[in-house]
Amino acid sequence: MSDPFPDEVDEALWDEACRRAEAVREFLKHRPGKMTAADVALLATEVETSRATAYRLIKLFRAGGTVMSLVDRKRGRPEGHRVLDDKREEIIRTTINRHYLTRNRPTVSQLVRDVQTNCISAGLKRPHRRTIKARLEEIEPQRRAKRRGETEIVKQTQAVPGVFAASRPLQVVQVDHTKADIFVVDEETRQPIGRPWLTLAMDVCSRMVTGFYLTMDAPSRLSTRGVAP
Q: Which keywords fit this entry according to its UniProt record (predicted)?
C-alpha cells in the first residue's frame, strides 16, 4: 500500500509529524556520529514517546528524511469499515426501524435481544452488542427522538429561530480561522513544513473581509490581535 499524500493525512497526525521531524532534525544535526542511549532517551522525552520509538523515528528520518516518513499510521480497523455481511446488516436495520424507533420506546437491551434472535432464526451468527449499538448511534438524534416520541430531546436538537444581523458596517466583526489549502516548504531542503493558518475578520453587515493574518502558528489570541486591515 502506497503512502498517502500530505493533504490526505489527518491534520493532527501531520502537525505531530512536523513536531517530531523538527526534533529529530535538530537531534541529528548536533550528533553527526554515534549517539548514546542517554541521547536517545532525551529525544524520547522531547517527543513524548518511548526510547524504542525514538530509535525508530531516527531510523525512519535517516531513510526518508521527510515529514511524511514520521506520520504515525493509525492502527486498527479503518474508520467506517464494516465486517458484518449484508444479511445481518439488513436484519439490524429492519429491527431498528420496526421495533426500536416506535412510540413504545423499547430499551437498547431489548433491541439487542431482538436483533440476535432474528439472526439466529435466519441461521446467521448473532452480532455483538457493541456492533448493534454502533448502528443505533449512526441514526441522527433528532430523527430518532421524533420516531420515539421523545419531545424533550426533539426540543434540545432543534435550531433556535432567529437571525444574527448588523444594521451598519463595522458594527459587528466576526473572526474565524482556517488552514490554508497549500503546503509551505523549506527554502533550502524543499521539504514540507506544514500548512499555514489563515485568520479572517469579516464584517457582518457588508460581508466584506476587513482584515487577515497568515501564520504557521495555531490560532490563539495573538492571531486575533494580529489581524491586519
A: Plasmid
